[in-house]
Amino acid sequence: MMNSEILNVFDEKREEFKPYGITCEVWTPSLMRRPDRHNEIELNYFGEGAITYLFHDKKITIPSKKLALFWGLIPHQIIDFENITSYFVCTIPFSQFLEWKLPTSFVDGVLRGEVLLDGSEAFSPYDEFLLNNWISEFGKNEGLEVTLLEMRARLLRMAHNSVARKENNHSSIHSTEISQVERIAIYIAQNYAQPIKAAEIGEAVGLHPDYANTIFRKAFGSTLSEHIMKERISHAQRQLAATDTSITEIAFQCGFNSISRFNACFMKMNGCTPREFRRRYL
């Protein structure tokens, strides 16, 4: 039983990218007419039933009794649910998540936009108790510090159960760089449809373009230009899958200045043309 009678529900008038901050709450599921985007890491847990999300073009069903984690900056939208009246939602600021220095392969999966599920059922009986405890602890002066420690420990266990362990061969990213990377990621997410370049990104966040590119690559494993392209193609995938908007219109909406450039980039990322992608998805 969840210990909160206050059930949150998605506000469709909510401003895109508006932060949730650090939270642990009980939500009631609802079909979402538009996706949510926020720059926190999101945790979901269902004691029963299942929820199906649309992440860009992918339908992903999260089953009950499995702790699920994903990056809220990836557009996510509930399109179906069954046998569920309430569920747990926790949001963790992106900078806090990176500061926890969880295993590299686990963090990489999150940054690539994967939905990670705990691969072990051993902790499922304790997760509902743990989540209820986090909710109650949030109201106490010392509760937040304790909860953050427990969250990190739980995600560390999840990391070892979700992905194969790998040596950390990435360059370390310092805490002072985390907020800079976060600002860069948000700026790209908000402006990918515009003809932005590395110099403009650097200027917008107050960094030299070369330095912005360096610290961004440390965290994401891709250059600014590559990440802009991924944002544009990911948005195009969603439009192709969920609308009947013409391919030409989608290309220009996503920031491409020619249909040939759009087709070439789409083929490189997906191994098929936009028309083939739409036909395959439908």
Main sheet makeup: 5 strands, antiparallel
Order of helices and strands: EEEEEEEHHEHHHHHHHHH
Assign the structural class, choosing from mainly alpha, mainly beta, alpha/beta, alpha+beta, or little secondary structure. alpha+beta
Distance between the termini: 40 Å
* Portion in helices: 40-55%
Shape by Cα distribution: globular
- The Rg value, from CA coordinates, equals 19 Å
Sheet with most strands: strand arrangement: 1-7-2-5-8
The percent range for strand residues is 5-15%
Count of DSSP strands? 8
Describe what this molecule looks like in 3D.
By secondary structure, the chain is an alpha+beta fold. Helix content is about 45%, strand content about 15%. It contains 11 helices and 8 strands. The strands form 2 sheets. A 5-stranded antiparallel beta sheet has the order 1-7-2-5-8. Helix 5 packs across helix 6 and helix 5 packs across helix 7. The chain is globular. It starts with about 20 loop residues before the first strand and ends with a helix. About 5% of the residues have low confidence.
Topology summary:
Layout: E1 23-27, E2 40-45, E3 50-55, E4 58-62, E5 68-71, E6 76-82, E7 87-93, H1 94-99, H2 104-111, E8 116-117, H3 124-137, H4 143-162, H5 175-191, H6 198-205, H7 209-220, H8 224-242, H9 247-253, H10 259-270, H11 274-281
Antiparallel strand pairs: 1-7, 2-5, 2-7, 3-4, 3-6, 5-8
